[in-house]
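Example with several molecule types.
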Amino acid sequence: MEYYLQVFISGLVVGSIYSLVALGFVIIYKATKVVNFAQGELLMLGAYVCFSLTVEYGLPFPAAFLLTLCFSLVLGLTVERLALRPLIGQPIISVVMVTIGLSSVLKSVVQFVWGTQIRVFPQVLPVVPITIGGLPVAPVYIVAFALSLALFVAFSAFFKYSRTGIAMRATAYDQAAAASMGISIKRIFAMSWCIAAVVSAIGGVILGNINGINSQLGYLGLKVFPAVILGGLDSMLGAALGGLIIGILENVCDGLAKDILGLDGFRDVAAFVVLVIVLMIKPHGLFGTHEIERV
Amino acid sequence: MQDKCGLFFCSYRAESALFPSGFQRACLAAFLLALVIIPLGINSYYVSILCLMNIAVIGAVSLNLLTGLCGQISLGHGAFFGVGAYTAGILAAKGVPFLLVLPASGAVAAMAGMAFGLPSLRLKGIYLAIASLAAQLILEYVFLHWESMTGGSNGLMLMAPEIFGLKFDSDIKMFYLTLGVAALTVLAVSNITRTRPGRAFVAIRDHYLSAEIVGVNLFAGKLQAFGLSSFLAGVGGCLWAHYTNFITPEQFNIGLSINYLAMIIIGGLGSVLGAIFGAVFLTVLPEALNAVAALAGQMLGGDPTASLAALKGGVFGLVLTLFLIFEPDGLAQRWRMAKAYWKLYPFAH
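Resulting structure tokens for the full complex:
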């Protein structure tokens, strides 16, 4: 039983990182209706930049972290301006493929600059585990969880109360109406990519602190799909919960599959099996909006 | 040359003919003849690339049927291709003759495709794309972990295929085999687009509600598209398995699915000719990069192999992105424009 509690907690931590990436994904989808397959690569690039700044240039961690966020801001802007803006109004498949192309380019940039071997972040947080309910938990896990929670609350408030946040929601709802109210659609699109890139970079840095980084980190971006589908593509609360649920499910199913069926490596597909089942039952996810279509 | 100012049809039959003019038929015959003769005179490295092209054409044309014609985005085509390859591997090991293995691989792949196509009735657009992504990853897992059948990460060995005692054990023989199957596939898909189901696919893609109202059975149509497309992909996979003689799960990963999608995008969605162009283009691209990297290595003296993989990925992404931004209708559209330009040259008005 204690084993499963341990598995549950590590699932919660991995889940909170999924939540962060899913949050970035949902922000882009909410504002621009673009499904971003390059979310994992944005995360990976952020992690590598932070790694370079701390290890290769010897900057103190907080400074490196802030610089990484600035870099991600610029990255988000560039990507939106160069790749996504020309495709406004194109069919879904074009937009999906352009983000896939983008992920391929970003991955090759990382391989060129940093190579493919695993890199280890310097220890920023104390390594002595803290005991919670009789179980030892590494501090970095607690920080990861707290940070995800804080970001989720901050962005929920941002979308609910700030002018820009409301403008973004308006754009998502009806672009023409939003534009006629004086909202600059282009600025909203650019901003949503900036925010998503920054949030992903934060996720990348946390993940780097836990596991180290390598050029396969981008595959995490695929893991986000079960999370956002479970929550519904356009719901922030759904993304946050979906991420946590997928994180826990993955770890628990992995443990169960190993114990009962003797299957190895079930972790990687557990989330997708759940995804197929959810889509069969509720095609718009748990919290997504139903579209009503008229001829 | 009498039909240069336009073609005038007196019946629907004539209008929907695959090759309305004698000139087109002559060109096609010349092209096929060239395809048959050329491999005899070039070295086997180039023949092997031509073989890969044929197999890629089968994969791309079949995905084009599903995604280009019927509008169902599939990120799982590589896995269905893999199902065909593994079926071929397993059956061939049991001593089943190649002529039976080929359709059987297609049939098993079609069943897998239809099973994962089932959710397509309720899902569309991006939700369906993600469901097909799930199919890809689940099938990949099965390839890797059903070790008693697939050999897991050790892979499966195959012998060269044999038809009526004729062994296809060299690149050039495999080329003629793959060329034959590819030509049949292209002919079949071109003909499907002219039938009622083919027109129903296009109607489902363009507006599914209207299609349903005019009497197209959406569920049957989508399932047919999934089945046909996966069948052809399975046939392609069977040829691939027999050509490489060795299959492992990582040959059929998400990268392959993306590659096929990129082929039909670069070629031009919905066009059979475009799918062929895209398949040829994306098969040649990595080989061309190899050649360029080898040349650069000679001139600069460094070892380029380390960054070659990264370079390939980057160029692939870049080409895909540039095509989407600057030529969304793909190579097929370029081809049409080139033809239109030369048609009346130099007297274009």
